[in-house]
Amino acid sequence: MARNIKLRIWRGDSTDGGLKDVVVEANEGEVVLDVIHRVQATQMGDLAVRWNCKAGKCGSCSMEINGKPRLACMTQVASFGEEETITVTPLRAFPIIKDLVTNVSFNYRKAMEVPAYEHPKNLAPGEARMEQIDVERSQEFRKCIECFLCQDVCHVVRDHEENKKSFAGPRFFIRIAELDMHPLDTLKNRKKAAQEEHGLGMCNITKCCTEVCPEHIKITDNAIIPMKERVADIKYDPVRWLGSKIRKREGL
Amino acid sequence: MTLERHKYDVLVIGAGGAGLRAAVEARESGLRVAIICKSLFGKAHTVMAEGGAAASMGNVNDKDSWMVHFRDTMRGGKFLNHFRMAELHAKESPDRIWELEVWGALFDRTKEGKISQRNFGGHEYPRLAHVGDRTGLELIRTMQQKIVQLQQKDGRETGDMESGIKVFAELTITDILKEDGKVAGAYGYWRESGEEVLFEAPAVVIATGGVGKTFKITSNSWEGTGDGHALALKAGANLVDMEFLQFHPTGMVWPPSVRGILVTESVRGEGGVLTNNLGERFMFKYIPDVFKDKYADNEEEADRWYVDQDNNRRPPELLPRDEVARAINSEVKAGRGTEHGGVFLDVSKRLSAEVIKKRLPSMWHQFYELAGVDITKEAMEVGPTCHYVMGGVEVEPDTAAAVGVPGLFAAGEVAGGMHGSNRLGGNSLSDLLVFGRRAGMGAVEYLKNNRANPVSDETIHAAAAKIQAPFDRQGGENSYSLHAELQEVTHNLVGIIRTGAELKEAIVKIAEIRKRSANVAVSGGRKFNPGFHLAFDLDNMLLVAESTAKSADSREESRGGHTRDDFPGMDNKWRQVNHISSFDGEKVNVRKQALPPMPKELFELFDIHELEKYMTPEETSKGGSN
Questions:
Q1: Catalytic residue at B304?
Q2: Using alpha carbons only, how large is chain B's radius of gyration in Å?
């Protein structure tokens, strides 16, 4: 049942590196992370790779497999051809630390820039009442496991380091959408902030983020497009524009 | 090169639920807090908790109360729990859940719009607040975002978002430092660069989670290497009842690469049925005497329970985890298992595909992607997997202070006592909220009378020498192979069913591996080098395994997560005994200590006839300790 497969692994650090070919045993049902671990235990003791749960729930083992951003723990070896070489490389949008590990601190900085949830001041713990149907919209986005594959694939930052400063990325658009759709959140103007402060306008909805999301969150359709539509609605509708000038309208 | 140094009031080691909750508490009391995580922030094993957090809010059945939850917890732990921990946990968990909602958590709802609660093994009423089957992720994310909220507040006040609370991600702590018998800080290294870091902090909270990686088949990730257990032991703290390990009855068994990965108990809570290869629903054969009045002994009644819980007894699939795990083990051993050495778990016959995908979305996903099984149409193959350690650091229940080490606190899975000999599903998420907060409060109180405790150069040099040692050795042992050998020993000799002879053999073998581990050499440099990281994890796992094997050898009875083939019965005399492990620098020593008796007001919450099943006549006639 065990067979040898060809694996090509990027090894190196921020100064230098390249692809290394190895042959490694693979057993039935194994995922790419399993064979990387076998390489680590038998051939390259210092091969750096992040992982945790090995069940697609923590989003640690993000890497590019044959050029596609994926979770190594959810990618079956058997999904490739018997003779095919599987190439594993680090996420391209983030600076390399070593081998398959990149510096993803960009994402944690962006997380700190999104204003936190604000609970209604007069609503005591235990008093909240929400309909299931109303919480489900935000719950879809709270499924996010922060694997940052969407951030990696997004062409706004993938090859454009200069855009990172003003662009939060798909992961944080769904975070903003989640708070915006939260039945109880009291902070106003989240959509406006998404547009003006977090770079929502730079997204041109190619849906690459949705395609790579291992949680199958409809990032573009359910978060980005609805926010863009509302922003456009209020910004360009002459009556609403006038209304917003006459008396201070909030809630965008 | 100059050593990187940081000064904080409180250092929290571990960024799972307990650690984050402790950090929030300490920061909200005005203290400066550092949070250490071995992985990236938000990846802790808490994200793997699926089913829910137990809290007697009474949203689904208003008969529920803290007293019922307390009774269920004590029963589940076979009355070996520290009564005060179980009491605090039962009383405070509803507030801890509601508080999460104030921080932005979105739990599933009841028709009235309250937080929905689901059934789980050993809980008399529907009690688990949940979000589909990804409740742990919701807890972690909510607290992660709460910490960001606190950082934003600090940012507005000081101009520096990290001035009051800072997360140090991908950092391993190798030593808890003491001066004059009190905690002074901790020492460790950045996993990324291998460079060393000193934290000076007079209060340290250990919240490092479990020990699953000591075993071959486990639901735990690489992080579950018993770091906090070992750090505490080495710092002079005790571990209590390390023989009790929970083998979760339902881990995946096929394909081999996913063996051990958790299949949530919610599958059974939602109506999943266990069968053997004869198609027999075998759990009816395994209802122990102490539970006969609470569990249905026939299929008709068990099935009726799903629609009418007031007039029917619960299905035996929902017995406490230790009972179900042993039953599955027996069926497989008797040759009635599946092709791959498990049993069948089937939810497809009770629920529609649509409902399964809605209530158990990540299970559907997990089986479909990793095993090629569609659980809406076919049965899963499942078997026991090492999931949780009930034993842990001996603490004062109210403050989570580690006994014997001033300034040290422990909360969550790494702390012992709360769950007795077996933890009920759903009680760990509530445990980490309740005692995470209490550990934070404990640190705040402690610091009122204890300020900074400077770390001496000698202490620093000793800690630094330990980190350098594996690089200076030539040849030597490989940490990956030693880890694999340890896992074989624990799996074969300290596993789900144990005997005295095998445990004694395990103690000898673990000591041999430990001796060889002193000779581990590391190839490559310090920069993100997993071989180097494992060398330290291995040392921790060896201490934990030694403590477990020795405690298990001493306990000559079977109870909860400790089953002795040579002492198959539960012995009420042993219920009065806690095993206390300590470390003398060379080896782990295990001694017996009397379990604190329940006070009268808790004692009287139980039917005396129930207590007679667990307690000696002297204890029951006394009727509580006051």
A1: no
A2: 23
